[in-house]
Design brief:
It is a single chain. By secondary structure, the protein is of the alpha/beta class. It contains 20 helices and ten strands. Helix 2 packs across helix 6 and helix 13 crosses helix 15. The N terminus is likely disordered. Bound molecules: zinc ion (ZN). Zinc ion (ZN) binds next to helix 13. This is Limiting CO2-inducible protein B/C beta carbonyic anhydrase domain-containing protein. Keywords: Signal. It holds the Pfam family LCIB_C_CA.
Length: 428
């Protein structure tokens, strides 16, 4: 239902289309679309062509991404339908020129005036719809990458870059994983995908990682519980395993999450329709608060965990990882990385406990990291592991190929040992 809520028409006046600057910008985008290298993705990747798996998945229907784009095309919703300057009036090369502050300055002002970032990006996507070859979802991602600098919150961006230094936009992560695995023969037809994410609704926004990965691979088996830990366990994983296509492949993505609000506070997120930020991940921050509260006890009853099996597991496993937190740069960032450690260990222990995995698939790949929920500018993902193990027992580290150098985390976490614990190979 949250997706439907977000599909509402943008908050503009009835019948009012995008401002002249937005329409002129659409022209600039159209001109630049002929030169993909001009599109600087968050880590320098050019957009994928319209023939990729994302395009097929979006065409397949049902994706919230498509609905969101369609919402922007509704009459009065801001989609470009006549009026405004001709797209052909914008010259190639104008995009770079305008970055100096001319047209883009006007765009930035319009974006600042509109708090609904999705609305703005959807309007831009719809404006591009008539001229750019690609799906509505692709248009959304391209517009977001091009314009996020004009409407993000600088404190949030600074916090993210400080504590999650090589985080990537969700779309770039999805494409990087898909490109690397595509070269290893993974397709949406021969691959069964599972994800282990926290059930918090902020993780299921259209155009963010959960939706993008599911769209990329077609279906998703849900292994995750609170904080993104794979609480489905051995029984859940075996059920998933037995659904694998014959001689097929398995992809698993696991990721605890953390919000960063507009003030740059880690572990906090302003949710739609609310006026105050709340915790994200509530399960991880809640466990931390329960352990560290003044006079906090150790028994289940003292922590109120008697009927709270998943939270109890998080508390029990987080407690021994907290020594050392005082040397970290941010307590909740530290807690989030420890939650990642707990999720990874539970995931890999589960895999190690199933001896017949390769009777059901010929290769299994695991991507792990931390999802970062942002109020503006798109959600990010800090990759921390990406490995594949084949039926013949060969374990291949795919991290650098997909994401580049690993992040430097010693300062963030307060010691080399803590950084090593997060970044060490899983050894499964
Ligand atoms: Zn959560």
């Amino acid at each position: 239902m949250a997706a439907a809520r977000r599909c509402r028409a943008p908050r503009r006046g009835p019948g009012r289309g995008p401002g002249p600057a937005l329409l002129a910008l659409a022209g600039a985008l159209a001109a630049a679309a002929a030169r993909p290298a001009a599109w600087s993705a968050s880590r320098g990747r050019a957009p994928r062509s319209g023939t990729g798996r994302v395009a097929r998945a979006a065409k397949g229907g049902g994706a919230a991404a498509v609905q969101e784009g369609l919402a922007a095309r509704r009459p009065g919703s801001g989609g470009r339908r006549g009026g405004g300057p001709s797209l052909q009036q914008v010259r190639p090369g104008q995009l770079e020129y305008d970055r100096q502050g001319g047209l883009f300055g006007a765009i930035a002002n319009e974006m600042k005036a509109d708090e609904a970032r999705r609305t703005v990006v959807a309007v831009l996507g719809a404006a591009l719809g008539g001229v750019f070859v690609g799906t509505l979802g692709q248009q959304y991602q391209i517009a977001q990458k091009a314009f996020r600098r004009f409407y993000i919150s600088p404190p949030a961006e600074r916090s993210m870059n400080a504590f999650f230094p090589t985080a990537l936009l969700a779309d770039d992560v999805n494409r990087a994983v898909s490109d690397v695995l595509g070269k290893r023969g993974y397709t949406s037809q021969n691959t069964l995908y599972a994800q282990s994410m926290c059930p918090d609704e902020i993780n299921s926004k259209a155009q963010e990682l959960v939706a993008l990965m599911q769209g990329e691979w077609g279906e998703a088996f849900a292994l995750g519980g609170l904080a993104g830990l794979p609480f489905a366990g051995k029984s859940g994983f075996e059920a998933f395993l037995h659904h694998t296509p014959v001689d097929g492949k398995i992809l698993i993505c696991f990721a605890p999450h953390v919000g960063i609000n507009a003030d740059g506070v880690v572990g906090s997120h302003l949710r739609e329709g609310q006026v105050k930020s709340s915790t994200a991940c509530g399960a991880a921050v809640g466990a931390f608060n329960a352990i560290t509260k003044p006079g906090g006890g150790n028994s289940d009853n003292d922590l109120g965990l008697a009927y709270d099996a998943q939270e109890k597991y998080i508390v029990e496993n987080l407690r021994p990882l907290l020594p050392g937190i005082e040397a970290s740069q941010d307590k909740i960032a530290y807690v989030t990385y420890q939650t990642y450690n707990i999720a990874r260990d539970l995931m890999l222990d589960t895999l190690k406990g199933i001896p017949d995995i390769y009777d059901w698939c010929d290769e299994l790949a695991v991507v792990g990291g931390i999802m970062i929920n942002r109020n503006k500018g798109g959600d990010f993902f800090q990759p921390l592991t990406f490995e594949a193990k084949s039926r013949d027992g060969v374990l291949t580290d795919l991290y650098q190929q997909a994401f580049g150098p690993r992040p430097e985390l010693a300062q963030v976490l307060g010691s080399d040992a803590k950084a090593k614990q997060v970044l060490s190979p899983g050894g499964w």
